[in-house]
Structures are given as structure tokens and as C-alpha cells.
Amino acid sequence: MPATPAPTPAVRPALGSEELLAALDDDQRAVATALTGPVCVLAGAGTGKTRAITYRIAHGVRAGVYNPASVLAVTFTARAAGELRTRLRELGAGGVQARTFHAAALRQLSYFWPTVVGGALPRIVEYKAPLVAEAASRLGLDVDRPAVRDLAGEIEWAKVSLVAQDDYVRVAADQGRSGVAGHDPATIARMLSVYEDTKTERGVIDFEDVLLLTVGVLVERSDIAETVRGQYKHFVVDEYQDVSPLQQRLLDLWLGGRKELCVVGDASQTIYSFTGATPRYLIDFPRTHPGAEVVRLVRDYRSTPQVVGLANAVLAKAGSARSRAAVELVAQRPSGPAVRFDAYDDDPDEARGVAERIRALIVKGTRVSEIAVLYRTNAQSEAIEQALSAAGVGYLVRGGERFFARREVRDALVLLRGALRSPVDRAMPEAVRDVLASGGWSPEPPDSRGATREKWESLSALVALADDLAASRGADLAAFVAELDERAAAQHAPTVEGVALASLHAAKGLEWDAVFLIGVCEGLLPISLAERDDAIAEERRLLYVGITRAREHLNLSYARARTVGGRASRRPSRFLDGIWPETGSRARGARAARHSATKADELGPVDAEVFERLRAWRAGVAQETSKPAYTVLHDTTLSAIATAKPRELRQLAVIRGIGAAKLDRYGPAVLAIVRGDDPPPLEPASL
Predict the structure, then answer these.
(1) Average pLDDT over the chain, rounded to whole?
(2) Do 126-205 and 340-394+493-596 come out as alike in CATH topology?
(3) Where are the domains of the chain?
(4) SS3 readout for 241-305
(5) Per mean pLDDT, which range of 175-189, 436-450, 504-518 is the poorest?
(6) What percent of the chain has pLDDT over 90?
(7) Which fold, 601-686?
């Protein structure tokens, strides 16, 4: 067993039990005072669940109900476990163990392994890929890097779901898990067996084995099980909606039939079913633990009423499919700005529009690190990365590689450069398609999910870019490769602080002042691969998670077409039916008009004097250059300038209708007019 923990730090003298409880709302206090189990806490997003459970533990220690060394708090990420430990120390309960399932199991397995087996615990492989690739080779399977990743993911799912090789084909069929990496279920079942053989021959174990072996030790050695149960008498499990059958089996063995268990979760945030997580243990907790105290945390302290209202509406649209464990949030923050809904012509237009909105927020004082752009698939990041780079806004990609750092994109660049060595006798888009086809791209998307699908999405983004550049610039293959090289170089510019770019999965557990959800349309959210009812329900929960990441500003958008000039066939996500404002062609035109005047609407009233000075100046420029006045600057742009009254070029550049050329040509004059000074004359070369 682990060594005895260090002495528990004393509770802060000024924070007695009553003072501690007084810091909680009524629902949180109900959690903190429910010191004996079983207890089920259904906690909505932003309701202070971590606060509630840490105060519960601290109150139990302070009241003498818990010995700190006998409490084990379990969660799913090292970051979350670290946060629990920090909060518990601050509350005077530093002796409590807070660990992930794997960390707690590894601690126990390492301690008991010499007694049960002898010698040291086998080495844990950090990456499965080499073992999976070797197993595939033994089976005669032709696999590339994405296929290896998908096979590794399926092996992990089978192990944490406690699915044996002999049962895999049946269970996979029941759960719609077909076509993994392009292989049928029978082949995957053989892969499970050969992978285990390969691992055994190497004398190594993987991360799932840590849990499986710990379960085996506790099942086979009752003396060891009793030792563990003697150490830990009270259990708290956070994010319980994400528990897998294997983790639940381990938890049951730790408990040994006892009832001292408090679970905390939100069924509406179950978004990892593909990894083996299931909300059924949370949903069924009152039934499987008769007499359990159920507490609902519904007061949302994170988001404005506007954000909370949309989150509730999205769940309400689920109807009978909504989980009975879901909670309806009640906003506690003051009213904030309305949620924005924007429709754009195409993906590049959406990316530029979002970048403009982000720059406007930054100019108005929002920290760049408090802004996030969230999307369903990693391939969607390319357009927004490019738009932010062009706008001079730094960004950081969370939970994944930047677009041009991805293996398949780097490999594609190598193939495209190689194609330049030979004469190209066909149009550039066709040449790009032929080259990328040799790297695994196909016109039709693969049926499989995971890395194989992500690879196809990345290569398809390059194909779409080739079409766009050919149509807009007449670019040939050399120009296309040069464009890709420039974009890749711009991406690697160092950034200290930037806008967070993340998939909806990677955003779980995080929050920002401003969140932009892009690609909120059919085919992306829900993703086209989601066909079963349970898969559609999980896609709805993904949208809910994305919405609830926003504290104050929330912008949902989609593009009607993927590429410039493409067919405008997309429509808003079905999850927003009855929520997305105004549908139809005339409404779309009205939205476009409103979008062009966004800055004026949001920044306050127009300064009429500045507006008239700008109009007079524009008339003079139009006469001097023999151009219509609206081609100099449109009325909506003048109105936005007279509202924002920028003092610097960077502030002027944010305003819609001010591109790089107009900023360079008219910027100094416009700023002078805003200040009330006489504008400098235009240079002859600029006329």
C-alpha cells in the first residue's frame, strides 16, 4: 500500500465549519452536508460542482466524520485532479487523496505487484501505435498512420468496455461500430487477440491493463481487497457521466458493497461514448443505490442569461430523448449581450467574419486569451487559422495539431512539391486531386470515423483550397504550392497569448469570456457520420457543451457553401430548429445587411458631427478621383467609423469595409477627421 500521507494541514483558524458552509448556496450546501452515502449530485454546467464536493470533503474532515487519509476523490484528468488537490489544501483537507482512475490504480498495482506476481511491474507503453502496427502486419493488414490510430482507439474501447474478443463482433454490431479503419468486425476481433499476444511477447502492458490488472488482483486476492478497503472508506467520483464499464468495475471493488460513495456528473455533457464512456451509471444511480440522496445543482454562475437560455433551449428540443438526469440551468449573472447568429456565403467568408468580430472584441478590451473558436472537426481549423493570421491575431490550437503541422498535410506538401518536377498537362485542381489521391484522398468520404476520417477532411480542405485559388486567381500548381508554403510559414509565427482554437471535445471543462461556434450546420453538427439516434443525441450534447463554454459573448455561425462559388446547400443545424432566427432568402438578406452594420450597432450611437465630416471628405475624394462616392467608403462603413471613433490604425482596421488597401490609402485621413483635424491630402500615387 502507499505510504501514510503527510499530516493534514490544519484548517484555517478563521474558517470554521459554519463559515465554510455559509460560503455555499442552498443546493451546494445540501451536497456539503450530505456526509454519508450514497449521494448523487446532478450538476449542470457552471453550477460550482467542484466547489460543492471539495467543501463537502472539507466539512466532513472538519466535523470529524472523515479521516483525510481514508478519502479518495477520483476524476478523469490530471488537471482536474490537481485542481481538486489545490482546493482541498486551501480548505484544510490536504491529506485527502485526489487522483485519476489510472493514477489511483497504478499506485495500488505497483505496491501489490511484488507480492502477487513478484518482481517489478512491467513497463507501461506510452503509445500503442508500434504494437498495433506490428499486430496488423502479422495479420497481413495494409495500414497507414491514421488507420493505426483508429485501430488503437478501437482496442482501447473494447478493453474499457469489457468486450472480449469472442463477443466483439456481436457487441460492435449492436452499437454500430463497423468499418473501423476500413476493416470488418471479424478482422478487428482477430486484431484484439494478436495485439495482446504482441504485447505479452514484448513484456509490456498498456494503460488499460493498469485498470484490468488492478481489477484482477482485487478479485483474486481477497486479502489485498480488504487492505485497500481498510485504507479508503469514502469515495467521491467527479465527471461520473464519463465512467466506463471497466472503471465502474474497479470502483465497485474498491467499495466492496459499502455505500460511502458520492458521484457528481452531468448527463448532458456525455460526449465521449466513442471511447467507452457511458452516462447510464449516473442516470441509473438512484435505482442501483436505493435510498440515495439526489441533489441537483442548477444555479449557473458562469454564463449570462442569454447563454444559459440558449443552452436550455437546445436541450429542451431533444424532447423525449432528453435524459431524465439532465438539469435546467438558472442563470445567476446579470444580463449580457444577445447571442449572435450569423450565416455566411462560404467557409472562407465565415472565417473572415469571425476574425473581424474577434478583432472588434479585442479592441473593446476583451483579452485575446479569453476568446475561443470551437468547431466539430479539426479540419475546420485551417480556414480560421488563415483568417486570424491575415488579421494579425495570434492563436493557439488546443487538443490537436495545427493544420499545417498534421502528418497528412505535411505528407501532401511533399507529394505536391514532387509533382512540380514533372510537366503538368491538366488544370491545377485536377492535378492536385491526382497527387492527393496517391496519398490516400478519395472523392467520397470514408465510412469509418476517427483519424481516417480526419485525414480525409484535411486532404479535402486542400482540394477545396485548390478549387478556390484556381477560380479566384487562375493559380497553377506552382502557385498553389507556394501559397501552401506561405500559409504554413505564417502559422509557425511565435505567439505568447492567443485565441484558443479547439474542437468541441477538446473544449470540455474549459471556459472563455467569448466563444465562437463555427460550422453549426447539418453535416458538421450533427456530423454526417452520426446516423443512429444515440449518435445524434451525443451530437446535440456536443453543441450544449460548446454553448456552455461561454461566459458572456456567444456567436454561432455557419457557411451556406464550403467553397467560394460553391452550391449553397447547407442549412443551420437541426438542433437549432425554432431557435435560429429568421429563415428564408429574404431573411438571409436582412441578416447580411445587419452584419455589415454590426460595429455601429454594437459600439453605441453614431457621432453625427464626425459622420458628416467623413461624408464631406468622401465627396471630395470621389470628385478628385472621378469615382462614385460609395466606392471610396460605403455609408455603413462611415457610420461604423463615426460610432467607434478609432484613434489608431489597428482600431480602424477592425471595422467592416476597411481592407488593407483602403487602410493604407485613406487611414491617416480618416483618423485625422475623427480627431477633428484637417485630413492630409492624398498622395498622387494613391489617386
Answers:
(1) 84
(2) no
(3) 17-106+211-295, 126-205, 340-394+493-596, 404-491, 601-686
(4) HHCCHHHHHHHHHHHCCCCCEEEEECHHHCCCHHHCCCCHHHHCHHHHCCCCEEEEECEECCCCH
(5) 436-450
(6) 45
(7) DNA polymerase; domain 1 (1.10.150)
Q: Are 109 and 120 in contact (CB under 8 A)?
A: no
Distance from C-alpha of 132 to C-alpha of 640, rounded to nearest angstrom: 58
What residue type is 227 in one-letter code?
T
Nearest CA-CA partner of 644 in 615, 674, 612, 603: 603
- Which secondary-structure segment (H or E) carries 110? helix 101-116
Helix axis angle for 145-160 and 185-202, nearest 10°, is 90
Q: Which of 44-48, 149-153, 498-502, 642-646 has the lowest mean pLDDT?
A: 642-646
d(CA 654, CA 39): 52
Q: How far apart are CA 274 and CA 276, in angstroms?
A: 6
Return the CATH number of the domain spanning residue range 126-205. 1.10.10
Residue 545 amino acid letter: V
Question: Angle of helix 608-625 relative to helix 635-644, nearest 10 degrees?
Answer: 140
Q: Cα separation of 340 and 361, whole Å?
A: 14
The pLDDT of residue 453:
67
Residue type, 38: P
Q: Do the Cβ atoms of 63 and 88 come closer than 8 Å?
A: no
Among all chains, which residue has been given the C-alpha cell 504554413? Answer: 488
**Distance in angstroms (rounded) separating the CA atoms of residues 525 and 504:** 10
What does the pLDDT read at residue 587?
Answer: 34
Say what percent of the chain tops pLDDT 70.
89
pLDDT of 589 reads: 36
Superfamily of domain 340-394+493-596: P-loop containing nucleotide triphosphate hydrolases (3.40.50.300)
pLDDT digits (tens, 9 = 90+) for 480-492: 888 887 777 655 4
DSSP secondary structure letters along 466-497: HHHHHHHH---HHHHHHHHHHHHHHHTS--SS
Helices (H) and strands (E) in the chain, counts: 29, 16
- The stretch 533-541 carries a mean pLDDT of 89
pLDDT score, position 401: 56
Q: Is 124 helix (H, G, I), strand (E, B) or coil?
A: strand
Task: Classify burial at 596, counting beta carbons within 10 Å of its beta carbon; exposed 0-12, middle 13-18, buried 19 or more.
Answer: middle
Of 578, 594, 596, the C-alpha closest to 586 is: 594
pLDDT band at 35 (very low <50, low <70, confident <90, very high): very high
**Which amino acid is present at 18?**
E
Q: What is the pLDDT of residues 652-670, one digit of tens each?
A: 877 766 777 788 888 899 9
In angstroms, rounded to a whole number, what is the distance separating the alpha carbons of residues 556 and 376?
Answer: 13
Q: Worst-scoring range by mean pLDDT, 95-99, 220-224, 440-444?
A: 440-444
| Residue 354 identity (one-letter amino acid) | V
Q: What topology does CATH give the domain 17-106+211-295? A: Rossmann fold (3.40.50)
